[in-house]
Amino acid sequence: MAAPLSSTATKRTVVRALLVDGQQTAKVVIDASKLGDESVHGFPASVLSNYPEGVPLDLNPAWPLELDLDGDPEAFLVSLSFAGRVCRCRVAWSAITLIAVGIGGVRWEHEDVAPPEPEVPAARKPKAGHLRLVD
Question: 109 or 125: which carries more pLDDT confidence?
Fold first, then answer.
């Protein structure tokens, strides 16, 4: 019986199967605390601080990702765009906490909610049960 794949080898196999072989978009969540120093990983500090519970990445093979799955045995390299700025990022395999297809399994940080209705000053609120004549 063959030895089981390591976590790193398994993650690399799954990402390759989705992005390269299957030309499928992959959702990846990374633990920023496992990326190492900013000079090594290349993510803007502002991006990492916005997602303390895990940075969600949308990896779409239709985009020019400049994906390198084999150049570094401990990580993959990818070009990502943040607020219109392209960054060359190193994602350690050990930092990946989730690989998903579609939206399943990805925890979104912000939900779309309707804004609250503006407060009307008490003097202008219509009184219940009263009629008002408007010219």
Answer: 125
pTM of the complete model: 0.68
- Domain 7-104: CATH superfamily is SspB-like (2.30.30.220)
- For residue range 77-103, what is the model confidence (pLDDT) as tens digits? 999 998 888 999 999 999 999 888 865
Letter for the amino acid at 99? I
**Residue closest to 31 by CA, chosen among 18, 39, 14, 43:** 43
Give the closest residue to 91 by CA, choosing from 59, 132, 121. Answer: 59
Q: What are phi and psi of 17, to 5 degrees?
A: -60, -40
